[in-house]
Amino acid sequence: MAPPSGVGKRVKGCQIYRPFVYGTTSRPFDDKKNPKPPGVPDDHTHSWKVFVKGVDDTDITYWLRRVQFKLHESIPNPVRMIDGEPGKPFVVEETGWGEFEITLKLYYISESGEKPQTLYHHLRLHPYGRNDEEREAMRETGQVPAWTYEEQLFNEPYEAFYEILTSGAIALPKGVAGSGATGSPAAGGASSSSAANAALAPIGKRSEGGVLARSAMVPLTSRQKSPFSRETEQLEIQKLKNAQNSVRGMTEKLLAELRVKEEQLAALRKEATEAMAGG
Ligand code: SLL
């Protein structure tokens, strides 16, 4: 693809990851915990939201510009365009009765030169297929979470975009992050997919460790669909060290063999010279 104007060249050999979370959180209507607002049709059994957001509500709008959420056709205006607001999740809130697949189209900032990318997510209203512990957590929170952790890879980003991605974390005012789609931490712990279970718990610690909104840090551990991390980096380094050691070993062996051959050659030359002198 020809580079868009003003974004510079691509930064060769550079890969930048930005973690994010997308999914749905739904709640059954309940007279006490989640009363049905006036005007909601009788057959609607749940309120729910679908979102794309940063891990621990870190800002992602500096690389993600807008998200198009395509809902079921039975819902009025099923195609929703949501533009990013700094520090806020991209979110659509709805009510309904049935589960369906939501199509999410991610639009990156223009400096990225990236084409939009499509993700799919199944809206979960019911706690099917969860284990007892998860069901218990859902009973406590009244929520059915279905979240997926994802890492957005920018492969050889354009220079201008690289600058934006790496130009230092911006601190968000307290209270900006955390609004909206996330629900309580308990809801996160009760998340359905194993990817979410594996990813959500450690992220809190990890982001404290410095995966800030804007920094070119490599993720700390390997994750699904993410071949690059500090872990794999260490493995690569170890592999390179091993390779270096074996090359060094081979070189030493060859040098030793060479030395023996040179000695043999010198001896043969001496013999030949002596033979000629003597004969
Ligand atoms: C099903 N295949 O039959 C699915 C379709 C559609 C859900 C589910 C409508 C909400 C509204 C709604 O919940 N549709 O009328 O705004 O289960």
Automatic annotation (TrEMBL):
GO terms for molecular function: transferase activity. Keywords: Nucleus, Transcription, Transcription regulation, Transferase. CDD domains: YEATS_Yaf9_like. It is found in: Nucleus. It comes from the Eukaryota. One of its GO terms (biological process) is regulation of DNA-templated transcription. Residues 24-44 are annotated as: Disordered. GO terms for cellular component: NuA4 histone acetyltransferase complex; Swr1 complex. Its main location: nucleus. Residues 10-168 form the YEATS domain. This is Protein AF-9 homolog. It comes from Ophiostoma piceae (strain UAMH 11346).
